[in-house]
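Lab manual, section 2.4: Encoding a predicted structure.

Procedure: take the sequence of the chain (551 residues), apply the prediction step described in section 2.3, and record the output as structure tokens. A sample record is shown.
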Amino acid sequence: MQQIDYITIIIFSLIILAAGLSFATKGTNMKSFFAAGGAVPWSMNGLSLFMSFFSAGTFVVWGSIAYQFGLVAITIQMSMCIAGFVIGYFIAPRWWKSRALTVAEFLTNRFGKNIQQYYTYLFLFLSLGYTGAFLYPVAKIVNVTTGFDINLAILLLGGMILIYTAVGGLWAVVVTDVLQFVILTAVVLLVIPLSVEEVQGFGNFIDKAPDTFFHLFNGQYTAIFIVAFTIYNIVFIGGNWAYVQRYTSVKDAKSSRKVGFLFGVLYLFSPLIWMLPPMIYRVLNPELQGLEAEGAYLMICKQVLPAGVLGLMLGGMIFATASSVNTSLNLASAVLTNDIFKPLRPNSTEKTLMLVARITTVLFGLGTIGVAFLVPLAGGIVEVVLSIAAVTGGALYGPAIWALFSKKQSGNSILGVTVVSLTINLFFKFITPMVFEFSLDRTEELLLGVGVPIILLVLVEIFGKVLIPSEEPANRIQAELEVFAESEQNDFGIKVLGISLLVIGFLFGLLAIWAVESAIYLLSLGILISGFGSILYGKVVKSSTKKLQKN
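Recorded output:
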């Protein structure tokens, strides 16, 4: 990397940090901090959901699989496309209609405080594993590209993400997610033609790729695995407590449905675009072994991108992958504050609650940093992500989603399904390999993980009795907020996004000075991004003026 790349990374980091910290004075109550005012545009929430999920695995997890096995990495991600459409049609509107701030609040309304507490503590414990696994790829990106010590990278990046999430809340998360989407989409469209040129043409790439490289199913990623992974993704994306925020923080059920549909559309087209570079790198450098394959995506970028643009791509990758971390931090803080602290201190002022929210964000973030240090000891990020998915996904999130539709599920039944499923999954994951020298392969592990809770829930539906749930109480926080205040906060968020896009567009244009061969492309992108930012900013200013005149 050249000096201009490091300068670009620093500038981009400052833009993201400034955008996040600009919401410091806006997250003054619980709903503004955790639900972004409750009326985020569905398009922004859809992009944020995409980035929060996409970022955790694309560059390191799926990039590693694309390098090793080829086209099957795209097949795997198409399961996420299917999940998005299913969630948009069936699940997202149900979450919005629950009118709960968090999944924990829904569980309290439906099943009572005791059941909610069991799930809350279980979720928080397992979330440390998820979030630590998400932080590790961020540090891996920095380590592979710059040679910076991976443990120091975990500390530095974890601290930076922790700061702007603790200060800005969900709006900081959403706005920075959208900025990262714009940056990465622009840069990857440059990586692809440069990679094809580096491999001396698409035909040469196909000719020199391994024999099974373009099979839809490859190695341990069989057709049965893809089916099971699709079911898992419907459950995980539809029920993960962090992602549910994207369905509930829009203005109506129709908008929540659009959030899921936009996620599905993006995953319909993006896998081919994103997985092509690491697939091409397999032909350029087939020597990567073991955990080295986790760096394939970064290596191809280093090889083909011009000076300055590499820094922009790296900065985008870092903060995009960090999106999963800041999403989980905000959600964990919401649960700790709204569902644990507030019931213990019901008379707490908004000022006290916001202080607790920021303190819990910091504490959970520190725990996440600790877990990220342990990822290499567990066999690498691919093993960690897929194992956590298989063991916990269906058991933890499936029962809550089922309860949105069923009148037969009780608190004891869904908790029982979760506990039994987790016990069985953990037994086959850890006990049988040590005691009986028998272990499940990846497909069997995933089938067990999603199959057991579904079978148990179906049995309850067959043999259980119809229950009459108590009337769900209105969300107290929502009732306390003024509509005008929510609208003002949302206008501010869009205004920050517009200004940030203007600055990023200018940065693209500036980089054209160093990237002579790509100058026209970069200038064109800079004009488009700045133009879009100007439109957003102007639209909000015009809307705000009309509101002031009306009031």
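Check your result against the sample. The two ends are 54 Å apart (CA to CA).
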